[in-house]
Specification:
This protein is of the alpha/beta class. It is built from eight helices and eleven strands.
């Protein structure tokens, strides 16, 4: 999601993501914890209220620090989850807090078992391709690099709002390694997919760019981001 987590517009994409899956929704406002406990707790309440209004079982996973992420009892809260939702905040803080911890290992196990990874803003940015460890020390994520959950794509959030900063969108895309895919998501806009095939939800657009070619897609439209750095796949993609 480009923005707008826990708002009514997102119900459609979340129900689509959870169709046929049993289990609870694990709500992780970890990216907001750098702004203080009050902010973290507010996002946690909003998440629980949002899923409660949808009649879904949601559970807050209280992970604010890396020490929290190493706690086995917190990691076990992802066991049996149908979806793990990471809300917005600071992407570098989120990445540094969870990467390589017991919580991260539990997340990987859950994904292997068919759980859904979901995120908004900072929570979505960490799904971006990882930075080459030979060129970077430590765990960093920002505009174009994340933790490699979708290893051949970088994501941009609040993409429509960046238009008010002249040259900003061009700067962001210039940081993408040549030949890799970039998907920019407008506010209150989401994509749902398996890492290659995607469908757009919400009120804005998804901008897709690779090898100098740019296309935009709106709700109900589909596209592909190929798993390699070859030529762009045909547009528009249909199942």
């Amino acid at each position: 999601m480009g923005s707008g987590e826990f708002e009514p517009w997102s119900e459609e994409v979340e129900r689509a993501a959870l169709e046929g899956r049993g289990g609870h929704v694990a709500v992780l406002p970890t990216a907001s914890s750098a702004e203080g406990d009050d902010v973290f707790e507010r996002w946690g309440r909003q998440g629980l209220e949002h899923y409660g209004s949808m009649g879904m079982d949601a559970r807050l996973v209280d992970v604010r620090t890396r020490a929290d992420a190493e706690r086995e009892d917190r990691a076990q809260q992802l066991d049996g989850a149908a979806m793990m939702f990471f809300s917005g905040g600071k992407p570098q803080h989120l990445a540094a807090t969870i990467h390589g911890t017991r919580l991260w290992q539990a997340l990987e196990r859950a994904l292997e078992s068919g759980a859904v990874f979901a995120g908004c803003s900072a929570g979505a940015l960490i799904a971006s391709q990882g930075r080459d460890e030979r060129r970077s020390r430590g765990v960093r994520t920002g505009w174009t690099f994340g933790l490699g959950l979708v290893p051949h794509v970088s994501f941009g959030m609040h993409w429509d709002k960046l238009k008010v900063f002249p040259g900003m969108r061009t700067l962001v895309m210039s940081r993408i390694p040549k030949g890799w895919w970039f998907v920019g998501l407008d506010e209150r806009t989401a994509i749902l997919g398996d890492g290659v095939s995607w469908e757009v939800f919400g009120i804005g657009e998804a901008m897709v760019r690779q090898v100098g070619r740019t296309s935009t897609y709106r709700a109900g439209e589909r596209f592909e981001t190929g798993p390699d750095r070859g030529p762009p796949l045909p547009y528009p993609w249909q199942p």
